[in-house]
């Protein structure tokens, strides 16, 4: 159970981040959603408003900002106060061959997917160690880190780096009772994948033994398990329908 726990979810206004926040909320957690779009965050918070078993209303908060903001020590202290679980779900994707990818696109991919995860994890760890309370970090990799496809080189590199970071932090932060794991999703039904044509989907499913896209709810169940299982750390859990086999 996550009752009385506070969870911060970056990229929490939609997709995987929002689904995880909903699942955590179902278990009694108070969630802080972080993203750059206030309107989308407000809509997401409305979806999270739910009554607790005792009839009290769970208050879910929002933070309008960028994961790069965690590079500031003062920013991390304010946003992460009393947070028990950090979910690094903010991320952007790539659909371009390396030779056609602009320097700005490369920079954005590295900053959001890798540096954002590093900065947020660093700030969370500092707060948790200072408070001597332990905690949980859940990062996001991708099946592409194991089975890359053309047009995803920089994205794949950032996600492979996140897996290395996850394992290193599990070793480094374990003595402080901070567990660090990652989820490696495959093709998941989100607003970003909804525009994919049927023909393209069929080709993509050739790589997936279960022959379908996953759901955000299926990924959220794994995130819940990682938040609650106290003997799991340093793991990268594949949720990809067998794509990485």
UniProtKB/TrEMBL annotation:
Gene3D superfamilies: NAD(P)-binding Rossmann-like Domain. Belongs to the short-chain dehydrogenases/reductases (SDR) family. This is Ketoreductase domain-containing protein. GO terms for biological process: fatty acid biosynthetic process. Keywords: NADP, Oxidoreductase. GO terms for molecular function: oxidoreductase activity, acting on the CH-OH group of donors, NAD or NADP as acceptor; quinone binding. SUPFAM superfamilies: NAD(P)-binding Rossmann-fold domains (SSF51735). It comes from the Eukaryota. PROSITE patterns: ADH_SHORT. Residues 5-186 form the Ketoreductase domain. InterPro entries: KR_dom, NAD(P)-bd_dom_sf, Sc_DH/Rdtase_CS, SDR_fam.
């Amino acid at each position: 159970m996550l009752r009385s726990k506070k969870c911060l979810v970056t990229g929490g206004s939609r997709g995987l981040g929002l689904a995880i926040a909903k699942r955590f909320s179902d278990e009694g957690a108070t969630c802080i959603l972080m993203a750059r779009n206030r309107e989308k965050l407000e809509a997401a918070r409305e979806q999270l408003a739910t009554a607790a078993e005792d009839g009290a209303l769970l208050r879910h908060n929002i933070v309008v900002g960028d994961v790069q903001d965690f590079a500031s020590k003062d920013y991390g202290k304010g946003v992460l106060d009393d947070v028990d679980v950090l979910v690094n779900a903010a991320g952007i994707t790539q659909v371009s061959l390396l030779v056609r990818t602009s320097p700005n696109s490369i920079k954005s991919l590295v900053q959001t997917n890798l540096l954002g995860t590093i900065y947020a994890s660093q700030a969370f760890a500092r707060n948790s160690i200072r408070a001597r309370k332990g905690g949980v970090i859940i990062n996001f990799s991708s099946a592409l880190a194991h089975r890359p496809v053309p047009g995803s080189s920089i994205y794949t590199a950032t996600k492979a780096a996140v897996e290395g970071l996850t394992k290193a932090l599990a070793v480094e932060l374990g003595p402080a009772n901070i567990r660090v794991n990652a989820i490696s999703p495959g093709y998941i039904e989100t607003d970003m994948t909804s525009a994919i044509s049927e023909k393209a989907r069929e080709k993509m499913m050739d790589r997936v033994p279960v022959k379908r896209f996953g759901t955000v709810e299926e990924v959220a169940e794994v995130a819940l398990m990682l938040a609650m299982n106290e003997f799991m750390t340093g793991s990268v859990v594949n949720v990809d329908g067998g794509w990485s086999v």
